[in-house]
């Protein structure tokens, strides 16, 4: 599946050479109506928005290296696209994290119960 937000994410990265956060990308894509089919405020909708963004980023990481020799550093707090200074700059693209986000089955098979269970592990029980 081709990620529908990939062009918007790439455009934002090119417009912000200083880098952006995942939160910034999510809010920008929401304003551009990229997530209109994920309108509810559930944790599952939030997970899906996050997944779509991370999928686009990891896909772009490979594309930008292969086509432009540009490096895309990815972390939730800082995502930055910059020019390579040589082969040593290449980011390892085949990591467990990238493999997870590039597999659309992980998007399709994750249920609200899965996200709730994960959130309870991270934050403890909700009151």
From TrEMBL:
Residues 3-120 form the DnaJ-related protein N-terminal domain. It comes from the Bacteria. This is DnaJ-related protein N-terminal domain-containing protein.
